[in-house]
Amino acid sequence: AQKITQTQPGMFVQEKEAVTLDCTYDTSDQSYGLFWYKQPSSGEMIFLIYQGSYDEQNATEGRYSLNFQKARKSANLVISASQLGDSAMYFCAMREPNTGNQFYFGTGTSLTVIP
Amino acid sequence: DAGVIQSPRHEVTEMGQEVTLRCKPISGHNSLFWYRQTMMRGLELLIYFNNNVPIDDSGMPEDRFSAKMPNASFSTLKIQPSEPRDSAVYFCASSRRTSGNTGELFFGEGSRLTVL
After folding, report:
1. Which residue in A45, A99, A110 has the most chain B C-beta atoms within 10 A of its own C-beta, making it the best mutation to test that interface?
2. B107 → closest Cβ in A44, A52, A102
3. Distance CA B78, CA B18 (A)
4. Could you read off the pLDDT tens digit of each residue along chain B, which spans 116 residues?
5. How far, CA to CA in Å, does B22 sit from each of A13, B62, B91?
6. Residue B107 parent element (H or E)
7. How many angstroms separate the CA atoms of B46 and B68, rounded?
């Protein structure tokens, strides 16, 4: 089974609108970390936001927030007030400390912001 | 602090040649990962090290690939002999997992390999 599933290969959003990128994960561990990365066309991987499995509050970083629903094993990324510079690939990832801090990445979602 | 440093940034070689990619992780980080990214297969984990010890190399495609981490500040990924299907961007990433930090991966800028 896939550890991280991103079901949206591509998404479009109007500039200044909010967009949600979906991510579900699979683990039997109680302790784990969830991450989102952005990869613009220039190719670098940029860390955006982190959610720990024991964190009760949803993580927020500026215009990024993580909608963490533990029972559903989902960790959706919400980008508010989209900007043209948000156009990029977005990867959801999970770290499992009990497997030697292995990192698992999803297949990514390509986001295009339309002016 | 300097980030993860990879070299070379670009490599063009001919089939059959040996390729060595290098990585210097962030000082103090105790985990190092090698990923390969292609359009067809996305981001694939090749191997990762904890405290310089290889933990999981099940993602290494075949015996042509080998990786070493002789010390905490240096790792290499070697392909010998290289084949056109090895053309990809190879990322090195490092992390430091302790209580009180998130342990996120810091990526290098990648090494773009083209095998003709």
Report:
1. A45
2. A44
3. 7
4. 689 999 999 999 999 999 999 999 999 999 999 999 998 888 999 999 999 999 989 889 888 999 999 999 999 999 999 999 999 999 999 998 765 567 889 999 999 999 99
5. 39, 19, 10
6. strand B106-107
7. 12
Residue B45 forms contact with A (CB below 8 Å): yes
Residue B31 has φ and ψ, to the nearest 5°, of -125, 140
Partner-chain contact B105 A52, CB within 8 Å? no
A47 SS3 class? strand
Q: How far apart are CA B10 and CA B87, in angstroms?
A: 11
Using the Cβ of A41 and the Cβ atoms of chain B, whether some distance falls under 8 Å is answered with no
Per-residue pLDDT, averaged over A62-84, amounts to: 97
Task: For chain A, say whether B9 makes contact (Cβ under 8 Å).
Answer: no
The nearest CA of chain A is from the CA of B109 a distance in Å of 5
